[in-house]
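Lab meeting minutes (informal)
Scribe: AK
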Amino acid sequence: MYHREGWHDTGTVPGLNPHPLCQVLKLLIVAWDRRLIFTIGTSNTTGESDTVVWNEIHHKTEFGSNLTGHGYPDPNYLDNVLAELLAQGVSEATLKD
């Protein structure tokens, strides 16, 4: 679990090695290094403008249930996050660069 001071969300990548999410974590690290995880925009949650928001690469912020739609387990998460990463130019090929 990761928490950044001053940021109100916590993201989680459950069930690592040898789970397929291990590969997703590696790709998320590439996206983080490329500064693709967050952007400045209008919050879908609060409506506040000019604030730090997710940048179209969804993260799971609730573990053990999916009541909010942002939780895990989510049977579509792997396919969705891989497509979102690919749309940002992050794929398995980038791990070899």
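Next up, CB showed the second protein from the same session:
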Amino acid sequence: MTRLKQLKLIAGWSVAVFALGMAGCSTDTPTAPQQQPIPGPGAPSATWVLTVTVEPGSLTANATNPATVMIRVRRADNNAAPPNGTTVVVSTSLGEFGSLGSGTTSVAAETVSGRTQLSLFPGSITGTAVITARLEASAGQASVPVVEALAPLVALFSFQNSTDNLSIQFLNQSTGNPDSFLWNFGDGSTSTEEHPVHTYAVPGDYPVALTIFRGSEEAKTAEIVRAVQSAFITDVDPRVVREGGRLQIRGQGFDTAVRVLVEGLLAKMISKSSALLVIEIPVGLAFPEEPCDSNGDGNEDGTRLVTLTPVNIEVVVSGQVGADSVTVPLEILPPSNVCTPGPGDGSGNLFITEVSPNTGSALGGGSVTVIGAGFFDPLRVFFGGALATTQSVTSSQIVVTVPPGVLLTAPCDVDGDGTQGEVVIDTLVDVTVELSSGTTHTAPGAFTYLAPIGAPCNGD
């Protein structure tokens, strides 16, 4: 009985082996049964498929929010998950696992139902992070870029008035690498250029808006921009004026003029309109000098200031690039052209060195001091031939009351219609000291009678 059971078992084994043999054949001819190979020592017990994914698909350097690394593990032969607790070794070429600042670039993670998940912080280095997951002899990888952080999207712009009339150059200075632009110039015109030039039809203040875009993001800024006409000078009046006197400048585009420079010195603005500026010639100009004879002894040991001509005048307009700078045939008389004695001139001789103040009303009445040497009472002082009233006399100073003066006139055309009238202007006169002996000394152009401010252009 026992023998019979053994024979049945042997027969059954033979059938199983035969079936296996038949399954491996491509013909009906029987072959000898073959055994499956047995893995050698150290060989993997299975081949695994490791799938690595990273979300999001792009990382930003120095970001404080981590990316999520997800790893899925399955057998290659039957798609079965490994047992829970199976350890997968995960490493990264950039960044760190776990927590910000941990410095951990390789970790061992246990799977649950064939899955595991890690946090990856990108770190400060840009490049490509390669994440590798390994189980036994199998591995899977994923690559994700680590890019620089984008600057905040902030709309900014500046502008410069062109040298062309009413043209403005706009310069985009936005941050955040915008990829498109929309300008609204406040007059109904727009542009999509990054740095447009826009020409306005008329001067004025315009609300200019810039909107920038980066993908779905946008930012906007707005600013009031002033369009101005380029200033230019056509004429000056009068053509002869004393330092401290008033000067009319004619031209165009003066309505936004902010300053006038005469030979580089800032002039006082008395009044302004789009076509006319009235200024006061600044004090302190560098007048040329010439030798002179202060005491009539035939030796030119002294010096006197002489007329400054031609003269550079510059009109600077608000918001304009540059300014109109012209050299005009204007004559500016010095505050005094009295001959100042040199070291070889005798101090006992009669001479005038200064008149102070050197300007006054044409109505007269003001007190003026004549400074010099050789003054002896009795004496007389003349202003342009008109006798002044003497108040006091010393050897070096005479105090007088200025007599009324006569103002000269100059042609004028305020309305620009080509018809000229006349306007009174500042008038220079000589100052003469006459001693009782008949000896005289004259300071040419030493005093200026001032014309009234805003004097009308009669007959225009």
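CB comment: Residues 430 and 444 are 4 Å apart (CA to CA).
No objections, moving on.
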